[in-house]
Amino acid sequence: MIFKQLFEPVSSTYTYLVGCEQTGQAVLIDPVVSVMERDLAVLSELGLKLAYTLDTHIHADHITAALELKSKVGSKIAAPAFDRLPCTDHAIEEGQPFVVGSVQIEPLHTPGHTDGHFSYRLGERVFTGDALLIDGCGRTDFQNGDAPTLYKSVKEKLFCLPEDTLVYPGHDYQNRRVSSIGQEKNRNPRLGDQKTLEEFIEIMGNLHLPYPKFIDYAVPGNRLCGVCPSHLPEELEKYCQQITESKQG
């Protein structure tokens, strides 16, 4: 299997490329529209053809590249069936492996950050989106998020995986790239070290985070599999610029 971890600095988003060496087919997990030309360049360098994009959830902090990549290279769009997006080609459900060539991904429904959130297990790796971050987790105060539900998802779906399973999160804001289930169980300040549900609810209820500045544009755009709004405030344009125009490229 071919594997690459890619980083988009405006929203601090990780995109993951997994490819089948036998067929040359590849999947991009959580691609970001502003850096899709970079992703296509990496695919070309590796001699891979993009078969699918696969999102963990409807993002609130960036626009997915799913629709633009489909238009440009003919890749298909996979996303959680829970969200009932009419623009998807393949609906992801727990218990139904997602197979591309020799790559077999096990979908795990891990709601709580959003109600339709999925994590994806691939062998010794698990791509946790915003459900489980390194020393943290996604917030639970919008998009039908719910702290008790996230606690249950992490404890019963993710923390039950082997402890040496590598955790690849959807974001990191401190230049960290990978963790493990064992590490998060032991030291995650929100969910690890035997934190109780009551403690977790209190922690999440006292974060006092600001309203996400891009959410009102990102969520409707991502419900269409990645449509950038036609009239964005100037300070938010960086979230939709293509790589050729973006200083973050």
From TrEMBL:
It holds the Pfam family Lactamase_B. Residues 12-171 form the Metallo-beta-lactamase domain. Keywords: Metal-binding. SUPFAM superfamilies: Metallo-hydrolase/oxidoreductase. InterPro entries: Metallo-B-lactamas (IPR001279), Mito_Persulfide_Diox (IPR051682), POD-like_MBL-fold (IPR044528), RibonucZ/Hydroxyglut_hydro (IPR036866). The keyword Metal-binding applies. This is MBL fold metallo-hydrolase. It comes from Limnobacter profundi.
